[in-house]
Design brief:
Layout (H helix, E strand, L loop, with lengths): L1 E2 L2 H11 L4 E9 L7 E9 L2 E5 L8 H7 L5 E4 L2 H12 L6 E3 H5 L10 H9 L19 H12 L1 H14 L3 H7 L29 H21 L3 H4 L2 H10 L15 H19 L17 H17 L9 H10 L9 H11 L4 H5 L4
Parallel strand pairs: 1-4, 2-5, 5-6
Antiparallel strand pairs: 2-3, 3-4
Length: 368
């Protein structure tokens, strides 16, 4: 059923609010903009699938009420991006989420599966891939697009139940349900602070001191500019250009021509602002210069810990990636942070016997 009015949406949400669980998905276009353009929201309630048209329904706050309803489980596949888009569209922070991709990792050796692959492996359903690059902002949507959109939610409730049954059979269901609380954190759906974006730029670990302040100023400026103009970051100034600007620190407009990949058009439009950022960074007081990015050297103990995690995960038939990444283990060996997720909840339970081997607990900082 196609939902194109606020009244229809409110009626649908009233029905969905009486269910224990509903399935959600989104279709969007994200090509030449900073923010994705939401084209469709799919909602499965019981055996029925509904397609909500956000181009026709301008006020999606009723959908936000459902997303924020703690009594209704929202089932999604690879949930984070969809939930972030829905938070932007509705203003509501999601709670009570079940991610079928993440959940599958608690009853199989991998949690890195597309929805199509997951459906084939769990319930033997093959999805057509004909509409993966469709323009979801066009109207009317074709019949094939409508069918494709329905398929993305119609099987999710069945898959969730199957995953929970399998996890219960191997006694990992409590870990699975605990991990789903991850999606209840409102901070997960917030934009990174512009002042912190510089830490996501490749090569930041090689930059220190005053030049790190320069990179921070440049990245912060670009982040604010991209958001205000709703254009991709690379359409303003590419990451590589920011890094080259940081190393060369041009002080005059004419010097900008020596910066790799900085186009004449970008110099014309943004040259003065770029020079101002560089000047601000170079003149920042030493006490206000950001701490350099910590990129720890490879620790020999890391390989041992990763092997022990993989071996135990294989015995339990869960995805070792869920416990922690190689970089996360390596970083913990250096920082020994008492707030590490290795020391909390189900991960601590998983790691307990590993902590007791070869002083690994001490190496990771468990005794701190």
């Amino acid at each position: 059923m196609y939902i194109s009015t606020e009244a229809e949406l409110k009626e649908l949400v009233a029905r969905a609010s009486g269910e224990a669980a509903v399935a959600l998905d989104t279709e969007f276009v994200w090509e030449r903009t900073f923010y994705p353009n939401l084209g469709l929201v799919q909602l499965a309630v019981g055996r029925d699938c509904f397609l909500i048209d956000p181009l026709a329904v301008k006020d999606l706050s009723a959908l936000g009420d459902l997303i924020a309803n703690p009594d209704v489980t929202k089932i999604l596949h690879d949930a984070c991006q969809d939930l972030t888009i829905l938070k932007q569209a509705t203003g509501a922070s999601p709670v009570n989420v079940f991610d079928t991709r993440l959940g599958y990792g608690f009853c199989s050796p991998t949690s890195i599966l597309s929805l199509a692959a997951l459906l084939e492996q769990t319930i033997g359903v093959s999805l057509p891939k004909t509409e993966t690059r469709a323009n979801w902002l066009q109207r009317p949507l074709s019949q094939k697009m409508l069918e494709y959109a329905n398929d993305d939610v119609k099987y999710l409730t069945e898959v969730m139940k199957l995953i929970i049954r399998r996890a219960k059979s191997q006694k990992t269901d409590s870990w699975l349900l605990e991990e789903m609380k991850y999606y209840d954190n409102p901070a997960l759906y917030e934009e990174v602070e512009p002042e912190e974006y510089f830490r996501r730029i490749k090569g930041v670990n090689l930059i220190k001191g005053q030049k790190l302040a320069v990179l921070q100023e440049l990245a912060c400026w670009r982040e604010k500019k991209a958001r205000a103009m709703n254009r991709p970051r690379s359409h303003i100034v590419h990451n590589n250009v920011l890094v080259d600007l940081t190393y060369k620190c041009p002080r005059q407009r004419n010097d900008l021509k020596n910066v790799n990949r900085l186009s004449p058009n970008a110099v014309k439009r943004y040259g003065s602002e770029l020079l101002q950022c560089i000047e601000k960074g170079l003149n920042r007081p030493e006490a206000e210069i950001p701490a350099p990015e910590l990129r720890p050297p490879r620790k020999p103990a890391k390989d041992l810990i990763m092997r022990l995690i993989a071996e135990k995960a294989e015995k339990l038939n869960i995805d070792p990636v869920l416990i922690g990444s190689s970089r996360e283990v390596n970083l913990q060996l250096v920082t020994k942070s008492p707030d590490s997720r290795f020391f909390k909840g189900w991960r601590k339970e998983f790691m307990q016997d590993i902590f007791n081997q070869d002083n690994i607990g001490d190496l990771l900082g468990l005794s701190n």
